[in-house]
Structure formats: C-alpha cells, structure tokens
Amino acid sequence: MTSLETDIAHLLAGSMVLVSFLLLYQDRRFALLNIFALHAWVLALSVAWQAFLQHAPHLFITALIALAFKGVFIPVALHRIVVRLGIHRSIDSVVSVGPTMLFGMALVALSIVVMLPVTEAAGAFVREDLAFALSIVLLGLLMMVTRRNAVSQVIGFMSLENGLVLAATGARGMPLVVEISVAFSVLIAFIVIGIFLFRIRERFDSVDVQALDMSRGESS
Amino acid sequence: MTHGWQTQLAQLVLVLVLAPLLSGVTRRIKSRLLRRRGPSVLQPYRDLLKLIRKEAVVADNASWLFRVVPYVIFATTWLAAALVPTFAAGLAFSAAADVIVIVALLGTARFFLALAGLDVGTSFGGIGSSREMMFASLAEPAMLMVVFTVALFAGSTQLSSISAHMTGPGVGLNISIALALVALIIVAIAENARIPVDNPATHLELTMVHEAMILEYSGRHLAVIEAAASLKLLLYVSLIACIFTPWGTTVAGGSVAAYAVGLAAYLLKLGAFGFALVVFETAIAKMRVFRVPEFLSVALMLGLLGAILLFISRVPN
Q: Residue A10: which of B170, B298, B313 has the nearest Cβ?
C-alpha cells in the first residue's frame, strides 16, 4: 500500500468526521438533510476506496448499498416527510453550537485515546480507521442527545450507523450477509421511525420530543 | 550571510510597495464582478498620498496614545509582513522569528488599535474595540491551532523550514493540512475585515468593526493605518501561499534567474488568491455580528480537529 493510497483513505475517513461535525453545526432542516446525504456519499466513496485497496469486491456492494439507500433513498424520503409534517423552521437544539462543537472535539479526542492503545496489535491502518469510526459513532450519539426534534434525531441515528459501516470495512473480512442484513435493518428501522414520527405528530401536534416528557401513557 | 540581508531588505521594500497594489487589484476585480467600472488599481497609492498631505485632525481629549498608535500598528504589521518568506527563503530575520512571533506581532497591533478605539471615548470606537476583541478571542486561538497543526506536521515553527518540508517528498494528501488551510482562510477573512465578517467598503454601518475603531483618525495617521491594513491583507495571503503553495519560492543563495522566477511565482500567487477572495466575497452576504463568533469557532474547531487527526495519521507505522 503506497503512502498516497493510505493518504486518500485517511482523507475520506477524516472527511466523514468533518461532515459529522457539519451535521452537528447545521440547524436548518433541508441543509441538514443534504449534509446527511453528503455523509453517506463520502461513506460510499470511502468504502469503495477500501474495496479497491483490499481487493475485496464485496465491499463494492456495500458501497453501492450505502450510496443507494443512505445517499439517495433515505434523504429523499426524509425530505418528503419533512414537507408533509410541515416543519421547515429551524431546529432547536438543547445546547448551543459552540459548546456542542467543543464537546464533539472532546469525543473525537476520547475515541483516539481509547482506540489507539486498545488496538495495539492490529495494523496501523485498521487502528486509524477504527478511531475515526468510533468518533463518528460518538458524534452521532451526541447529535441524538443535543437535538430535540425527532427528525434530527433520526439523522443522528443514521449517521451513527454510517460510522458502524466504516468500522466494519476497516476490520477486514466482514461477511457480505452481515453487511446486507445491517443495511436492511437500518431501512426497516427507518420505516418504523417514519411511522412513529407521524404517530408522535398525531398525538402531540409536534415532533419536538420534549412533548413526550409530559406524557404518562394515558390516552387523552 | 550578506545574501540573507539583501533578501530581507528587498522583502521589506517589496511588501510595502505591493500591499496597496493588492488592495487596488481586489477592489478593481470586485467592481468588475459587480458590473461597475471601478477605480484604477493605483487608486490606493493616490489615496495614501492624498491623506499624507492632509492635515491630521486630532480630538481634543485624545491622549498621546492616540498619536503613537498608528505608527506602532504600522511598524508591527510591516515587520510581521517582512518575516513571511514571499518570493525567496533564507531571510536574515528568519532565524529569530517564527510563525508564533508573527502571530504575536499581529496581536500587539490589534491590542493597540483597540486601545486607540477606546481612547477618544466615542461610542463608535468603543463598539468597534469591544467587537474586535470578541472576534479576536476566537480568531487568535484558531490561528495558533493552525500554527500548531502545521508546525507539528513539518516539525518546525520556522516558516522557511515549513515551506521546505511542504515541497519535499512524503507530504502527499493530508486531511490535517486541508483542515488547517480552511481554518487559516477563515481567520484571514475575519482578521482582514472582509465580507462575511465586516465590510471593508463602508463607513456607515452599525455592524462595522474595523472602520469603527479608526473613525477618529485623519490625515497622515489614517494613511499609516490604511497602509497597515493593506499590509495585513498581503501578509495573510503571503502566509497562505508560503505554507500551502510553496512552489516556485527561491531557495537561499539561488541565481538571479531563480530570484526572478520566485518573484514571478509570488506575483502569480498573489493575483490568484486575490481573485479567489473577491469571488468568494461577491458570492456571499455579510453575516450578523452575533453569528461571527460561530463562524470563527468553526475555524477554531477545524484547527483543533486538524491537530487531533494529525496524531492518528502520524501513528508510527
């Protein structure tokens, strides 16, 4: 593996972390959806590059799945949901942008500190990929925590799953069956969440999950 | 050794002569993009000459500080601009002054400018100074993070060593360097009061920052401050060119032809960066003042992220 090839793999994985930060930063809904699509596109590129480097043709299928489902299908579907729910106003996050960003940086640092010593035995390349993937997962979790709106939380969840796929490609030899089943479970999760969103809206007239805090499960 | 001194002197003169031209060219291109004719590219020189010949009006309650500050700002900015290797490496001062010195010199200039804004006691000056300090509290750490990232990558804080490292083999594509570049561009835009942060072409807006601080200056004081502002723009462009596009820069002790090539490459880079800056400025709208800290915290975050990712990508293989 030449140094330029490694550099490009780094560049793509690092860009995914950067796009995760963009997701955290962005507070307008349609822009958020576009950035989420970008996240999936970068993931697909990264996975495809790994497939090329590792000579693993099945990873190309993974890349294709990521591109088709998360890069095109889910953003378009979410876009339509947002339009149908009629929520084009800005996202209200619990914590403001600055502290969230700093917290995100701390999470990235944490994942590096955790990952690098633990995976001492693995090859240098896998370690780095795992560190990137863990920070994307943590950033996805952070996004789910800091956002109140259910749609943004769904995007946080999906970006978290992108991190998992990145981790899986770094660790060589994940079977294609697992890959496909993960992709489909995400798709099913998406459908369930989509139905759930409409149910929340029906019940509370909003998709702000703070409204759920007041609910005690009694039908009104 | 004499070579270093000659280069250094040439550089001192060169930055002073070129700085107003860069401002003039950017203004001219901007006018053309807005389908105006725009003033000649030499207009900044004419403005400076006119201002120098005019009488300096000083407010009654201004202290000695008010009179001294323009010269302090000009001297520190000029020195800082002369420390960046523009067309040739191997400057005489480069052994003593690294990037951190440049940041410190710019910080000194900013400190005195903010003091001068407060000195006369007008409300505009106060607003300008407080805003400048608010932005600076984010822009300076961001700048330092960029410096740390680049210095860790190149193994030196000397600008000439950094650009030598960047032209050398084994650099390739590096995500940290890309992040540092974006962060430095954001800092440069904010520090030079360019459009998303501050509008350099207006004196009549409540959101102005740089112009608010120098509102009380006139005559030769204003001329000196304007010259310092254009030097600062030149400095940032040269800094970006020196770190991220170091191709064509003459190495120390080159032939005359090599120096000519270095100079031509530098002028080309200045033109290209100036053009890119103007296109960016024309395409974007000015931000609300209270969004600027968010904009700058992005730069800080990118610098920090670059420094952190450097530790991943430089794991001993």
A: B313
Q: Is the ipTM of this complex over 0.90?
A: no
Q: Is residue A218 assigned to a domain? A: no
Tell me how long chain B is: 317
Question: What is the DSSP secondary structure assignment for residue A53, as one 8-state letter?
Answer: H
Please, which residues have CB within 8 angstroms of residue A155's CB and are 6 or more apart in sequence?
A: A23, A32, A33, A36, A78, A143
Has residue A220 been placed in a domain?
no
pTM (2 decimals)? 0.86
Distance CA B291, CA A45 (A): 33
Q: Is residue A125 part of a domain?
A: yes
The count of structural domains within chain A is: 1
Nearest-Cα residue of chain A relative to residue B315: A124
| Domains in chain B, number | 1
Instruction: With respect to residue A219, please indicate whether it lies within any of the assigned structural domains.
Output: no
Chain segment A88-138, per-residue pLDDT in tens: 665 566 667 778 888 898 999 898 888 877 777 766 667 778 888 899 999
3-state helix, strand, coil in chain A (%, to 5): 80, 0, 20
Residues in chain A with CB shorter than 8 Å from the CB of B317 are 124
Tell me which residue range forms the domain holding B15: 2-313
